[in-house]
Queue: 2 jobs
Job 1
Amino acid sequence: MNFGRVQPKEHRLEPESNPFDDYRDTDRDPLVRIFDDYGRPDLHWFGVGLLASLLSRLVSLVPPLVLGIAIDSVFTPGGPAYSLPLVPASWVPSATTDLVVLSAGLVLAAFALGVVFSWVQGVGLSLFSNRVQHAVRTDTYALMQRLDMAFFDDKQTGQVMSVLNNDVRNLRTFLDNTLSGAIQLVVTVVGIAGILFYLNWQLALVTLVAVPLLTVFTLRFMTTIRPLYRALRSSVGALNTRLENNLSGIEVIKTSNTETYEEARVTEASRDYYDRTWAVVKLEYLYQPSMELLAGVAFAATFVIGGLWLVSGPPLFFTGELYVGEFVTFLFMTQRFIDPLAGAGRIVNAYENARASGERIFGLSALPVTVADAEDAVVLDDVRGTVEYDSVDFSYANGVPVLHDVSFAVEPGQTVALVGPTGAGKSTAAKLLLRLYDVSDGSVTLDGVDVRHLALDSLRSAVGYVSQDVYLFDGTVRENLVYGAFDATEAEMVAAAEAAEAHEFVENLPDGYDTRIGERGVKLSGGQRQRISLARAMLQDPAVLVLDEATSAVDTETELYIQRALARLTEGRTTVVIAHRLSTVRHADQILVLDGGRVVERGTHDELLALDGLYATLWNVQAGALDEADADILDALEARDRDALKTG
Ligand code: ADP
């Protein structure tokens, strides 16, 4: 078999760890839980569907029954009188032709009713399963959104997508056909077994011998296939993750010239998926025909014993009389008994498949969430903007310490700048203020209240975050601007855009504020995106601002725009700025120099230069000279602007 250009056997890559294998809830049968948690509001639709499906089964029994009676009573001279179960004898006509018409009419009516019941069954069960699917998906999405940031650091987005899409859809298929099929099967099998016993209990025993055999065989199959399905669902997610990561990183793949490497990785993930699917399919194809074979043997045994009985009287230890019509009915019924039994394999199979999906869905929602509202969470009404870090220690989930004993305080309206080499912990420190993560030790307080005691809503509307990699949603400029401040008026939006120096370039876009940007729209430059995000922050108007400054350089004119926008944005707001270019923090009230997660120096620009430590080194050696030149130009331009404003 050819799996593409790259042969996986020779290019075996290290198997990737998959945290999703641990996110699995196996405590309670997930399908019972689905019913319990999500099925209740629409249970009536399930009831309607199930009832219709049972009725359609029931009416399907009428033709063989009527046929058997007709053969014995109408077509066989000297046979028993024409009598229908549950129908009074006085309703049955006596003329033979009338009996033929009656029989045909009954068969036709049964078929017609069968069609109606099937239709009702389809509608009822589809409504039920689609509604449950919708509820499970939206609920799981909402839960997923509340998971800790640490969860998303694993970058298993493909797995999450696969749970929300494939696994939820898998459940729907199960609820749609399989569940009602299973109930129908049990009712049919038990019901028909009763009829078989009623018709001829001795022959019925011959047919029913197959049942315990099929049951044992099926139970064995279920326990064998369960782990295989779990592995299969995981590999669907792993493949999705790989594809999703590669699509997001396509620029890096192209520029690093790693297409062949990535092809090998995708081939590997796809190969894994193939292997696991094949393991399931192999078992299925062993099981399903075996079930059919067993069922066939049971049918043949019934036919042989019954046939011999008709031809030469009761064989072996059997006793009594058997009529042809009775035997025909018996054989038809046996067929209706055997077929669903043989089909039980498909149901069991679908059940195991859905069960593996259910475990993943509930596994996701069972993940512990640590960053959540405390029970007595405080809502801040009027935020002044005092921020204080007190002896903060922090490490990410991997346990490596990132911050040690970080302490500082910012008064309302002041600006504190975090500077230091890459990896020093600046962004991490800032994220703690937004409570994207919880501190490991110490505390972060806003207006004197520990952020862990603040309602998340309240905290995140008080603290704005302007990140360096601006994420624009697929939509119009307007939609992106008012994101998070949805009730802003047109005038407020334009004012914010003007303050962020974005109004002018937005007006020049093909459709102005209604221009589509983001994934499927106009692509904006880095500087334009930054100004959109500044305008967004202006509209949200938070008391405290966390500013993760852009590293990517923009031309001096754009820089000027951005600096002016920033000056307006930070005016009167407590600001924590993560500075990558020192020129922008010269005017900060306080500068903290972080190195290896510790505050190594603190003070104003001039104090730190005088200290002649790490800051001074960064300033002088790394970028100082250049930045100073840039800064001087900016100062000059700003001064010219101010003069222009005064004279204008
Ligand atoms: P800076 O902003 O100063 O460049 P960061 O705060 O981004 O530094 O990173 C500080 C340290 O924490 C680095 O060693 C980085 O590798 C680590 N780190 C950052 N984010 C995560 C994360 N999500 N999970 C684990 N480690 C992280």
Job 2
Amino acid sequence: MIRYDLHCHSTRSDGLLCPADVMRRAAQRGVEAIALTDHDEVAGLDEAREAAREAGIAFIAGSELSVTWRDTTVHIVALGIDADNPTLVRGLEGVRAGRDARARRIGESLGQAGIPNAFDGALAYVTSERLISRTHFARHLIDAGHARDMKDAFRRYLTSGKPGHVPHAWATLPEAIGWIHAAGGAAVIAHPGRYKLTSTDMRELIADFRDLGGEAIEVVSPSHTPAQYTEFATLARTFGLKASCGTDFHGPGESRFDFGDLPPLPAGVDPVWGGW
Ligand code: AMP
Ligand code: MN
Ligand code: MN
Ligand code: MN
């Protein structure tokens, strides 16, 4: 069995290591096939592909697209994309463009809550001029002494209902899946256990996704408990979807799973890489 890791981030979005270092770390830790999936971005893929080749591991071109489904932000991982596809490139440009204005609003909202200059603070942690995320705000809030760690920064300031969380419309689910398919890729619902959805809404999300031609559900993820591996494996099977797995690695010390730490997919699911 090849060890797959189909979800991780580099400095081209909100990760701490450059794409080549991400690939080298994954290879050193026993990963045999890896997808780089930066948020709304494909700019790190060429560097990553070359480093993966040098390290002797298989490379899958990916991205993690930000989507608004009803009122919920949902992430859709794209796997096996042609990163030069104009439909995908233009779609991702549009999503990234919305991030700058959103970040200013996050800064203003934190200012009203008594935390001044958070936008400039977050900018100091940005590693790609093309992308600012809440993760950069979180790193600033920690280093400025407003939060103990990532979890604390998100819990206190950056999640729904907190000052650093502002409403934002990302891509729609049909748009995201359409762009991924235009680029020849497979669409995967990322870490479904993270979304605050009732079980009815979760099934409706999965049904919508399946009806739009989506391919897979991320079953094994650090966002899930072992019980959720079973739960989402069952949902994948019952909806006729494949299963994926990934560490969602962002950097040493910032992620619950490092490369090589992923448990295997539960028995009985159809892995997303089955047809590759
Ligand atoms: P954004 O796309 O700007 O909304 O930022 C989302 C990113 O924030 C995710 O990809 C994670 O890297 C990070 N994130 C979200 N929630 C949490 C959390 N509770 N703890 C740590 N990181 C989080
Ligand atoms: Mn992230
Ligand atoms: Mn995500
Ligand atoms: Mn991710």
